[in-house]
User: Fold this.
Amino acid sequence: MENKWHIGRTRYTPGAWPLTSYFDWPFCEYFGIENKGRAVLHYLDKGNLLAVWDKTLLDEFGNVMLNKVLDLTPTELENLRQKGITACADNAKVAEKFSLFLDNASLDDYKNFFKDFRQSYHEIMKYNFMYWLTAVDKLEIKIKKELENLPENEMREIISTMTTPTKESSSKKVDNELLRLVELAKENGVNSTITKNAIKDFSKKYFWFPYEYVGPNIWDEETVTNKVNEALADPKTQEKQDDVLEKQKTCATKYGLSKNLLKLFNASQQLALMQDDRKMYMSQAAYYLNNRILPFLGQKFGLERDLALYMDEELIDEKTDDMIARLKARQDCYLTLEINNGRQSFEGQAARDKFNSLYITGQDNTKSTKELKGQIAFAGKVTGKVRVLKTSQIDDFADGDIIVTGMTTPDFAPLLKRAAAIITNEGGITCHAAIVARELKKPCIIGTKIATQVLKDGDLVEVDADNGVVKILGKNK
Assistant:
């Protein structure tokens, strides 16, 4: 029996938001695709997420969205990105604005907020999310087809060089502003009035940046000051970055890249930037949702924060005992399934039973696995100890550890800089881990699918990113 499902995302996201906002609207109809009973679902097992697509639906979406991208001129594609940035920023503003009036917010106000947040998130789907989510794999196949007659090492060099964005990403903008703080501190001293004021302004602007989905980390003034001091003590901070645009011009000339290939690479860069845009603004929205709005709502019913993160407008009118029972069931296991522009949801054991009945694989027995294979994002070979990360919110990461995670997001940046190598379950040539690995020149293997299942903290591995193989040298007992 052929498995009809594609597991697209694996990560730790203990809560309902924003997952329940993604596909609860007629997204197939909007993009001109007939659903034909094909489903998209999100499955949360004790906070561990699997985002799953019907393979045929994803395949059709990928083709349609890639054609939309390639039909655009570079200017039109940049305009699409800017629309997406506006949609992401507006969504975060919806959450921020409501968070300012929680003391006086009624239950009806919360219901209206949930409605407004969902609607604003649909704009992100229209102008950002659906493009990079579905088109990037198809684009990668198209690029590799154009380069298939070249030796593997030359293909890798071209892809690595030409898919790196030349424009400033949203998270890179934050990184550059932090570097300017370091320069200011170097000139005037960390404790000078001018530096302290700049740190205060930076913290006020970006305090939410490392929050991700679950927090609790934020960039308060003390944290930013510590980061500036760490950067001042790190000589690598002073290293000059490569001129990406110049490298790409040299690469294009060296290999005689066609206009069609250059267009494909421009599209790949834009999709990478769009993915980063959404991830960064999602940290901002998630801070207001999961640190302010939902916990405050939970207090009205005497709920602990962890339970409150599974609240939505449907549960507000439930009797308190029934609400708590359903929230505990969701916290244990929760499945939402969108099909034919309609939604089905299951909680607790019913969710687990429904998921198992769909014949979705991805939880296979991997105890006997001795090596993993994936796609090379940046070449190199290192040996080190594994650190499996559900989130970036840890305090005991050691320099030289090898990061193993489902996917990386902008808040992982400080850990990525300290890591010896990066291994992910997910990703393609334009994913966040791949782009950052190239910037940092760190061995990186993406798209292993099962790295977080196979590897455990403390395992000794060899990351052979010259050949796309992770060898397990010793298991931590």
